[in-house]
Specification:
The chain is α+β, with helices and mostly antiparallel strands. Helix content is about 25%, strand content about 30%. The longest helix has 16 residues.
Length: about 375
């Protein structure tokens, strides 16, 4: 598990240290460096997948996970030298450092690697990442695809989620973490629990089916249920709410995660209404409590409130320990005409309250309310 990340001269950061826990929530206003934190990890992962990092000691800036262009775009604008440092602390006191020479304008940069451990969750086969823009609803879905940075969900858009769901159902695969079984699920088969969690989060009474249409394509369909009454019609992803397609790879990524694995998700709340966002926060918290390391970037106070409710133990789900979640709110400051970024780290107490509330941290509702009643 990642315990901390330090970045020096990386993009908008001159020098920042960020702690990580089982569930790490990265938030803040636009342009404050939230994505840069995630991109530093993705840069290493995609370079590892291309075998540049561990074999040639090179980082690949432009590949399947991210495109960071060149050394100038990667380096902090006011840096005095060309070196960029990414330092990661893992559990068991393992520390790895990656010093990048950003002098070149090429998409591949030399890197000096020290203390590498390629078995950590950033580099092993259980790693998965979902980009903010996931795959839109499709009539049919790819069954397979050749990719260097292939995870169980396919590309960063989750384009193989339908294929994975079909395979899991066909093989009768069960949840790697039994504690992630939905309370209403009859058993712990993954495909059945995916339907239950989708019904819980997005729309009650929906069953999701995955069928092989051709040798190279999968067809998804939704069946609407009301109690014991099952609808006669099945609906394609094109005929149901956009949120179903966006939430599927997130739920599937969580339910297929192995204990100790790393899952990075940008905007898990995308295309979900407020109550669904809260429920999504609860699912992510449940997975984190049971051994999955999750890093999320979010703009949703509803999702954060779902996590806080899990800490307080209000839902009929397993309680989230306070030491297994950290919130980081990113902001900026200017000193001597130099623009830099920092993070306010917030902890959640047992009662769900936060140990601080920085200006700009999900306080827009209060500001608007004050203006409305003035």
């Amino acid at each position: 598990m990642i315990k901390f990340l330090q970045l020096k001269n990386f993009k908008c950061f001159s020098d920042i240290m960020v702690d990580f826990s089982n569930l790490t929530v990265i938030t803040g206003v636009n342009g404050m460096g939230k994505s840069s934190i995630i991109q530093s990890l993705l840069l290493l992962r995609q370079s590892f997948d291309e075998r540049y990092l561990q074999v040639d000691q090179v980082v690949q800036l432009n590949a399947e996970l991210i495109n960071l262009q060149n050394g100038d775009a990667l380096r902090y604008s006011w840096a005095d030298d060309k070196e960029i440092d990414i330092i990661i602390g893992f559990e068991n006191d393992i520390e790895s450092s990656f010093t990048i020479d950003s002098a070149s304008q090429e998409s591949k940069l030399n890197v000096n690697v020290n203390g590498s451990d390629w078995k950590t969750n950033l580099f092993n086969s259980n790693f998965a990442y979902l980009y903010a823009e996931r795959l839109a609803p499709q009539a049919t879905y790819l069954k397979n695809r050749d990719m260097r940075s292939k995870s169980r969900l396919g590309s960063k858009n989750g384009d193989l989620a339908a294929s994975l769901l079909f395979s899991l159902a066909e093989k009768g695969e069960k949840l790697p973490i039994p504690a992630l079984k939905h309370p209403d699920a009859e058993d712990d088969f993954v495909h059945k629990n995916v339907s239950e969690w989708i019904s819980d989060i997005v729309y009650a009474g929906v069953q999701l089916r995955a069928e092989e249409e051709t040798a190279n394509s999968i067809k998804l369909s939704y069946v609407v249920e009301r109690g014991s009454k099952k609808g006669n019609a099945t609906y394609s992803p094109l005929a149901v709410a956009f949120g179903f397609s966006y939430v599927l790879p997130v739920i599937l990524g969580v339910l297929t995660a192995q204990p100790g694995s790393l899952l990075i998700i940008e905007n898990p709340e995308a295309h979900l209404h407020p109550s669904a966002q809260t429920k999504m926060g609860k699912l992510l918290a449940l997975a984190a409590q049971n051994g999955v390391q999750i890093i999320i970037e979010t703009h949703s106070d509803h999702l954060v409130n779902g996590i806080r409710l899990m800490v307080k133990g209000l839902p009929k789900l397993q309680k989230l320990d306070t030491d297994k979640v950290l919130l980081h709110y990113f902001n900026s400051f200017v000193v001597d005409d130099l623009d830099d970024r920092y993070a306010d780290t917030l902890k959640i107490f047992d009662d769900g309250k936060l140990d601080g509330w920085p200006t700009g941290f999900f306080d827009e509702w209060e500001k608007s309310l004050i203006s409305l009643v003035d």
